[in-house]
Q: What sequence folds into this?
């Protein structure tokens, strides 16, 4: 009698850990100060500081060859140097951005080619200001599952290129600056390292509160006559969304991890507005040293915000192995996301 042998389920692969092996960033040299904006629109330094906490923001200079993909490549080179790795060791490059210069090729493909990543996979991810957190969550799970060992993740936006620096665009233009931040994620044999809780959410019904139209059909009803290629934001609605979701997201992530706010060593948060950051700090009773703020120096850098903060904290020696670090962001889409790491 013949028959097929009984199927045998293969053993589960050993559980991998994931570590952030290196970080890097690139801030363009050119600055837009509040004094500069006073010359372009009806505003004052005091008005901007009171509402946002921002003193200056950076801006790419195309005349210097700066663009989203060039500063992304420089940030990732820095992360690779910090990790003491060669670009050829990367299995995958993910660039989180809304500032891609062409529909094709992707920014990630250009970055991978520029740094010499060989035949590594390359893909862009668009989750607006949440992009880097979305991308690190995805990269982490690809490594944890055993599909990849080394992934470079970049968060970069050059939103100065879609700002209306007139009084009409004042409510948006005072906020945004340009920056790139990057991290190299690597597999490790220590299964305790990596993300212990995460969340990713969206509300696509509210997209009209923050958008960048490229064609006439992209405008929501009632927005006829506005300019193409310019960011539009309903500041009041986005502020309400951010204040509520920011705190709810932190609470949800802590609950999934079974931790209290005090258990986390650092909250690395998207720098959208100083008032929003302060509201979260007060709600959870966090000391200032646990919730990093750099928005006064760089503004809201969208996808670049969280990785730039992460790199500055690591470079200062404030984030150390074994600590618990929560990445938190919210942005257009509308989107909100978190990742709680054991470093």
A:
């Amino acid at each position: 009698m013949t028959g097929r042998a009984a199927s045998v389920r293969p053993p589960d692969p050993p559980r991998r850990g994931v570590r952030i092996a290196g970080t890097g960033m690139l801030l363009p040299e050119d600055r837009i100060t509040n004094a500069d904006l006073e010359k372009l629109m009806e505003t004052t330094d005091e008005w901007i500081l009171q509402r946002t906490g921002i003193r200056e923001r950076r801006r790419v200079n195309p005349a210097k060859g700066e663009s989203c993909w060039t500063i992304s490549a420089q940030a990732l080179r820095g992360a690779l140097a910090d990790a003491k790795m060669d670009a050829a060791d990367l299995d995958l490059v993910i660039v989180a951005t809304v500032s891609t210069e062409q529909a094709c090729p992707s920014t990630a493909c250009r970055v991978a080619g520029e740094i010499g990543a060989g035949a590594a996979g390359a893909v862009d991810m668009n989750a607006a200001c949440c992009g880097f957190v979305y991308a690190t969550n995805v990269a982490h799970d690809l490594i944890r599952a055993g599909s990849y060992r080394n992934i470079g993740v970049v968060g970069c936006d050059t939103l100065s290129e879609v700002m209306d620096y007139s009084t009409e665009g004042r409510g948006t233009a005072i906020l945004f600056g340009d920056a790139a931040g990057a991290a190299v994620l690597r597999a490790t044999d220590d299964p305790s390292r990596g993300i212990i809780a995460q969340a990713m959410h969206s509300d696509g019904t509210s997209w009209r509160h923050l958008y960048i139209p490229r064609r006439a059909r992209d405008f929501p009803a009632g927005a006829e006559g506005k300019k193409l290629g310019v960011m539009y934001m309903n500041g009041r609605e986005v502020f309400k969304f951010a204040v509520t979701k920011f705190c709810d997201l932190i609470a949800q992530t802590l609950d999934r991890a079974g931790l209290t706010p005090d258990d986390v060593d650092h909250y690395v948060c998207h720098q959208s507005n100083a008032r929003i950051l302060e509201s979260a700090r007060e709600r959870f009773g966090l000391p200032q040293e646990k919730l990093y703020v750099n928005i006064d120096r760089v503004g809201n850098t969208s996808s670049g915000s969280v990785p730039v903060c992460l790199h500055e904290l690591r470079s200062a020696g404030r984030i150390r192995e074994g600590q618990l670090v929560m990445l938190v962001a919210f942005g257009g889409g509308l989107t909100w996301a978190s990742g709680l790491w054991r470093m």
